[in-house]
Structures are given as structure tokens and as C-alpha cells.
Amino acid sequence: MRTNDHASISDLLNQAEVLADTYTDYDTEAARQRVDTKAGSPDTGDGPDARRPVAAHEQAARDLDLAVALIVDTPQAAAALERLADDDRPDPEGAVVFAALLHLARDHDAAQFWWQFAAGGGNRTAAFCLSLAHGRRAEFSDARHWRAEARRLDTAPADTTPTPPARPLLPESIRHQLLTQCRSGTRPTLPARLEAVINRLPVDPDLDYGTIPRPVPTLTHDLPHDHQAPPGTRP
After folding, report:
1. For residues 156 and 126, is the Cβ–Cβ distance under 8 A?
2. Which residues contact 192 (CB under 8 A, 6 or more apart)?
3. What does the alpha-carbon distance between residue 86 and residue 68 come to, in Å, rounded to a whole number?
4. pLDDT tens-digit readout, 174-207
5. Looking at the whole model, is its pTM more than 0.90?
6. Cβ atoms 222, 85 nearer than 8 A
7. Which terminus has fewer CB within 10 Å in the chain: N or C?
8. 13: which DSSP letter?
9. How many CB atoms sit inside 10 A of residue 228's CB?
10. Exposed (0-12), middle (13-18) or buried (19+): which is 187, by Cβ within 10 Å?
């Protein structure tokens, strides 16, 4: 795959309507702008990486990190994850959020499993993330397949049912930290306390992906909230 075949994160988000179709009242453009306004001023481009072209797989990795940071930053992320753990029916939106947490916890195989689960349910965001996940591994044929799937999947009709006020999945300090890391070109990581919550989840064996963590009904309550931010993070 040639480097110029790899669309930018903005192009892919716009073409696939990623996040906007999954969370129908979420302002995707405003979220992208927050990567600059919340996470710091624009990069001047004076660093050593600015003098060399970014390889396609490196760009895919950066774009996936940014997409994941935006997913966990959505106001509806906590409610979607709760539905995945509590409902009797599968919930693709919750699977997208859960996969994002697993990616941040560096369990990339499990994240891919849950994104494939969500994509099988018709979720465009999951297909988009899969295109980037394969791209970061230089599996460009698979990346093109999932990028085409993201464009093919129909946008779900907007849900006009009133929803209660959203409770953020993660504290503002952590969400800000993830966006800041993306903006600086650093791989976003979760604080140790939060990653420990993910690592304690029960797992199921899978022939292709090894052990796959699964969400529990208490997961969103086990994660730190704004009133209990982990030590070392600024409120």
C-alpha cells in the first residue's frame, strides 16, 4: 500500500461518519477540534519526526490511537458499555467502547475480537477501527477490506428516544491526558489503576485470539470517576 493511499484521520471520519452514526447526538467535528484546543497548541513540526515521511503503518497506528481516544471521550460511552454487560442481546456500540478500552490497555488481539463482533452487528465505527488495526500491522489488504466495509454499512436511523444525562466513562483528567498524548504523537495509555481494572476482568478462551476479556455489569462503576481520580492525575 502506498503512503498516499492511506486517508487522513479527518477524511476517514468524514467518509465513514465514524462516531456520528454510532452516537447520533455526538459532535464529531467538535471532538476533533478538542484534540487541538484541549490537548495543547498545534505542533510546530520542528521535531526530528517532522523531517521524515510517516510510514503508512505508523500513520494507521496514530489514527487508531486518536479514534480510540475519541470513542472513550464520547458522552454515551458509559451507557453503551453498560448495555453490553447487562442486556440479554448483543450491543455493537458497547463492544466498540469495550474494544477501545482494551486497546488502551495494550490488549490489541482482544480489541480486534470485539471490533469484529461489533462490525458483524453492522457497526461502521468498528469496521473503521478494524481498517486501522490491520493497517498498523501493515496488513494492508485487510485494511482496505474493512475500510470498504465502513463505507458500505448503512447509517443507522437516528434514535429520537429521550436519553438521560450522560455520565462520562472516564474522568475528565484522564480523557484530557489521552487526547494530549495523541496530539503529541505519544501512544495513549491508561493510568495503572484503571488498567488494573481491565486486567482483572474474567476471560474466555478463543482459538484465534487466545483469552478474550469480557465485560461485567459493574465495570463502569469500577472505573475511576471524577470524584475518585487516581493518584498522579490532575483533577
Report:
1. no
2. 230
3. 23
4. 999 999 999 888 999 999 999 999 999 999 888 8
5. no
6. no
7. C
8. H
9. 9
10. exposed
